[in-house]
Amino acid sequence: QALRQLLFLISGTTLNCLLLRKDTCSWSCGIQLRYNISQVEQWLRAQGLQQSGACEVLEPLVQAAQLLQVKKVTEEDSRALCSLCTVLTPQQVVKILRAYSPAAGLEERVSPRFISSVERQLQDQYGEGPGQLLVDTSRLFPVHLPFTASPLHLDELHIPETLNLAFLGRL
């Protein structure tokens, strides 16, 4: 549970930096992010922690990294991109697309037409509700402590006199 909280904090902070800093929205940053996340996921599997919920808190960051890596030109690309980004809010997707910096000489800037197409598809898909741009990293997950019933019954319990708990009585 502590690991899940820690990975949520790391994932949220990284996604917020990605949304706020234009220099991090590039194909090469997406490759680096995806590699690092896959290393964390591999470690979680090796430790038997894949069912702990830690992988789920990494999912928005995984989708953001994939968003940076996909082709962003045609209408088919926009449909594929919308089906890929299920955990990110429409505002986050559009913000990353607007901030995307193409590799020098290797690709073109994302066209405004493509961005508006994606925005329209996402609004159709998710509605026009108020979306959150940044991740609230102060969110705390509840702690779940497993309960194991004691085989000892309370009426069998003997309290020693040395504890000075004479005020306790049986009902």
TrEMBL record:
The Dilute domain sits at: 1-124
Which Pfam families would you find in this protein's record? DIL
- Signal sequence, start to end: 1-17
| Matches recorded under PROSITE patterns | DILUTE
TM ranges = none
For this UniProt record, the keywords arranged alphabetically read as follows: Signal
Q: Which InterPro entries match?
A: Dilute_dom (IPR002710), Vascular_dev_regulator (IPR052072)
GO MF annotations, alphabetized: GTPase binding
What is the recorded name of this protein?
A: MYO5B protein
- What is the organism of origin for this protein? Gymnorhina tibicen
